[in-house]
Design brief:
By secondary structure, this protein is of the alpha/beta class. 45% of the residues lie in helices and 17% in strands.
């Protein structure tokens, strides 16, 4: 599945490279919102995610729309939004990110499979305040350059890791905002123990736990080992009352 996602991403890159000059010239959409500051250390922050589909779970809920969903997230106390823009496997689009951002004052993460700088320029043009960089997909030099490129464009970079070696690589590349994904990208299996195991290695950075956080008990495990934020998507979208669930996750102990 991951190979298929990357292959489709590379096909879209051909079009983006042809539009490189256009994308670089486009102005940012509105003033930048500080994604990293919104997740300040020592807090209990929820990054609430909008996505229409998951490759492992299928369509998440019928009739989902980004604007009303984002407003529910904000009302429930989310600190930031995450929006899937990958079209082929998650049914996302830049329009979803634009709509979610316009509906609230929260900073927005563009969640996609970013391989080249042109995708960062595209993210800035669509209004993203942060981008996801997945260590497993990038060589060391490219990772470091994309972190710098995001900074040059005024975007935060959430650098995603899955194991000890990727933590080392993220920190050496200059990551200041690190997300531990509890989902194995090759098997799609999830294990909260991944975040618990890696948390002590994340000194001096803003720490985000991602994937498989579905209940107050799950959130409590992440808070207990020192995470500053959790990124939650499927459980919110299926909950029927995402605002209430966000409040429960933040208060979990």
């Amino acid at each position: 599945m991951l190979d298929e996602i990357i292959a489709s991403t590379r096909r879209r890159l051909d079009d983006l490279r042809a539009r490189e000059s256009e994308l670089r010239a486009l102005p940012a959409v509105g003033p930048r919102r500080d994604f990293e500051s919104a997740l300040g250390r020592g807090g209990r922050h929820v990054i609430a995610e909008f996505k229409r589909r998951s490759p492992s779970r299928g369509e998440l809920a019928a009739g989902l729309e980004p604007a009303p969903t984002a407003r529910q997230y904000a009302a429930g106390g989310a600190s930031a939004l995450s929006v899937l823009t990958e079209p082929d496997h998650f049914l996302g689009s830049p329009a979803d990110l634009v709509a979610a951002r316009e509906a609230t004052n929260l900073p927005v993460l563009r969640k996609d499979f970013i391989l080249e700088a042109v995708q960062i320029w595209e993210a800035r043009a669509m209004g993203a305040d942060a981008v996801l960089l997945i260590v497993a997909l990038l060589g060391d030099a490219v990772l470091a350059e994309l972190i710098l490129e995001a900074k040059r464009e005024g975007l935060a970079a959430l650098v995603e890791v899955h194991d000890e070696d990727e933590v080392r690589r993220a920190l050496e590349a200059g990551a200041g905002l690190v997300g531990v994904n509890n989902r194995d990208l090759t098997t799609f299996q999830v294990d909260l123990g991944t975040a618990e195991r890696l948390a002590p290695r994340l000194e001096g950075v803003v720490r985000v736990a991602e994937s498989s956080i579905a209940s107050a008990a799950d959130a409590a495990r992440m808070w207990a080992v020192g995470f500053d934020a959790i990124l939650v998507g499927e459980s919110l979208l299926r909950s029927g009352d995402p605002g209430r669930l966000i409040a429960e996750l933040k208060a979990a102990s």
